[in-house]
Write a structure and sequence with these properties.
Number of helices: 5
CATH class: Alpha Beta
Number of strands: 7
CATH topology: Maf protein
Shape: elongated
Low-confidence stretches: none
CATH architecture: Alpha-Beta Complex
Strand content: 25-35%
Radius of gyration: 17 Å
Structural class: alpha/beta
Largest sheet: 7 strands, mixed
Length: about 200
């Protein structure tokens, strides 16, 4: 595990290649450990509460065995008409998700948590994002799925790829939250633990 003179080890508690790629942009050493938790939403659990809870649980699950570390956990869901939508997992579900999103405004919520495994202090935030979809045809959706296969992307939207062609507007305070890890927020949380990127 990489460690520099000024900062403790940084660990990303995630199996997402998108989050790993985003964290790489900060040009700090980090390792990745996939958390093993149940991501099922509770009865009546709202999107904001769900992503914050899962981000915290991921950080705790990984941090339990890693002393002297700062652990980043994150989770994301979309909401269509107030209903929580996660990763499709397969083509049929992706088609349903994208047809439901056609012409709609979709809200995405990204929860992020930072755990100091020594002190036990955990800090968390939920970052909202809003995207407006074009009117989509089944042909457009099928072409997109053939080229991107976004079955591990929240709401089937790979916004840093061809999925951007589905959107007419995006709105939010932390651009990388749309991809799954809000880097502005991560930098702020790290600074609260005296870990400085620059």
């Amino acid at each position: 595990m990489s460690k520099n003179e000024k900062n403790p080890a940084l660990v990303l508690a995630s199996s997402s290649p998108f989050r790993r790629q985003l964290l790489t942009q900060l040009q700090v050493p980090f390792s990745v450990v996939s958390p093993d938790i149940d991501e099922t939403a509770g009865a009546q659990e709202k999107a904001e509460g769900l992503v914050e809870r899962l981000a915290i649980e991921k950080a705790y699950a990984v941090g339990a065995n890693l002393p002297d570390s700062l652990i980043i956990g994150s989770d994301q869901v979309a909401t269509y008409d107030g209903k929580i939508v996660g990763k499709p997992g397969d083509r049929a579900t992706a088609v349903k998700q994208l047809l439901a999103a056609s012409g709609q405004t979709v809200r995405l919520y990204t929860g992020v948590a930072l755990l100091n495994s020594n002190s036990g202090v955990i800090r968390s935030r939920v970052i909202p994002y809003e995207v407006v979809f074009r009117d989509l045809t089944l042909t457009m959706i099928q072409r997109y799925l053939e080229r991107e296969q976004p079955y591990g992307c929240c709401g089937s939207l790979q916004a840093d790829g061809l999925g951007v062609a589905f959107l007419t507007r995006i709105s939010g305070d932390d651009p990388s939250a749309l991809i799954g890890l809000p880097l502005i927020t991560v930098i702020d949380l790290l600074a609260q633990e005296s870990y400085f990127v620059l």
